[in-house]
Amino acid sequence: MAFSIRGGRRPGTWRGGATRRRLAPTLWLLVIAAALAVPWWILLTVQRAEEQGSWRVLSLATALAATSLLAAAFVLPSRLRALTSHLGVERLLRQHRALALVAVALVAAHVVFVLAHSDEGLGVFDLRTAPPRVWAASVATIALLAMVGLAISRRSRSPRYEGWRLVHVLLANTVVLATTLHVVWLQDLTRHDLGRIWFEGLGTLMLAVIVYRWVWRPMRARRNAYVVDQVVDGPGATSVVLHASGHTGVPFRPGQFAWLKIGASPFVFEEHPFTIASAATEPWRKEFAIKPLGDFTEILAGLRPGRRVYLDGPHGSFTLDGLRSSAFVFIAGGVGVTPMLSMLRTLADRGDRRRAVLIVAGRTADDLLHRADHEHLDARLDLHVVEILEEPPQDWRGEVGWLTEAVLHAAIPQQRVPGRVDFFICGPAPMVAATVRILDDLGVASRRVHTELFDVV
Ligand SMILES: Cc1cc2nc3c(=O)[nH]c(=O)nc-3n(C[C@H](O)[C@H](O)[C@H](O)COP(=O)(O)OP(=O)(O)OC[C@H]3O[C@@H](n4cnc5c(N)ncnc54)[C@H](O)[C@@H]3O)c2cc1C
Fold it and tell me: C or N: which end of the chain has fewer Cβ atoms within 10 Å?
């Protein structure tokens, strides 16, 4: 190891990442299992199943399970650093969607079981005569269905991201509020002490998460504000360099990202995620390479030096820190090279001479964003760079076309312990998926393959 961890932590060095990253998914699954099992146990403890009637038990059980899963789905995207840094943003969003879908299925089952044990049949849902608790349940169900429907159809409809996100957040909070009112007014699940404690616990957790996400994190971003140092418009991307204002900079791991806000205060709703491309050894300086794509990225290119901006981060688990690797292979498509730049710059600053291979693929030479740094990094690292272009210029001496198994195989460093090479892939989703498949065919263990997608949402 080229950097010391004795005597405190140097900027940009982190301990125990690998173990925590391996354990995090298991721990999270245990939390989900507990969220499902504890309410069942409560239900069966307070009253024996046969005394309650099987339809009633089923309706209560599905209601309990659905509320627990909704709470978990609500907590996941709330930027809790322990979750974003150890689960990773990709897995986190996958689980968020999966939990929400299972919760919808449970809500549907709950409605069926309620109908089965109700004397009124469908009349129980007649909103003209229904009590507030039924109104609350109806509002929660409609909001939940609308949320899932809008999320599923987003790819095909391509609405403006910010508008879609606002509606998603409003619907999610409506689901939480209406479900809480339904449970409180119905008093079925809270009649017994254990059930009440469980729901009060869930309610407190959700409230704490809302305050953390929408109040505490922006306040922290205001305390740790940054000012724009430099904006350089390049052919393939705009480089934006920020400097910590009145603090020493928020530490991060190379490869992590932050949500950037450029409004008058950190409480503005619009924010976009960008990977920090600079070295983790200089937390007071944060550089981003930004590809113009839509309105926000266009605005960034026009930022003036001295402008105050806010960062919510760092987040993400796409980092080499904490891994016991003997070599690294970084595979990037286009602007997906930003986390690789941060990792390479950090390795260089730390004097870490472990073998590193950087494979960058792009359409034209403008997409080769690493080139500005290439010579500088080459002199300080044991680095081999492979460039692949789809539309190369006339005097091109690199690879042509797409990343193939042959190119990848030739680039993999031959190590005394081959299993300790870690692969980092970031780029467009089809490229990441194809590369993962190639590595699988080459026999690389999946735990050595780390991916990041910029279009996860
Ligand atoms: C973890 C992560 C790291 C990223 N790092 C970089 C980077 O280093 N450099 C870079 O150029 N791009 C990066 N991106 C992509 C960048 O966030 C989007 O290109 C940017 O938000 C587009 O905003 P826009 O308004 O200019 O374009 P739009 O046309 O509004 O959006 C284009 C697409 O970008 C995505 N997007 C838009 N807004 C958001 C948002 N608030 N949150 C998440 N996704 C959004 C949506 O999929 C949308 O369809 C990263 C994305 C993620 C998820």
Answer: N
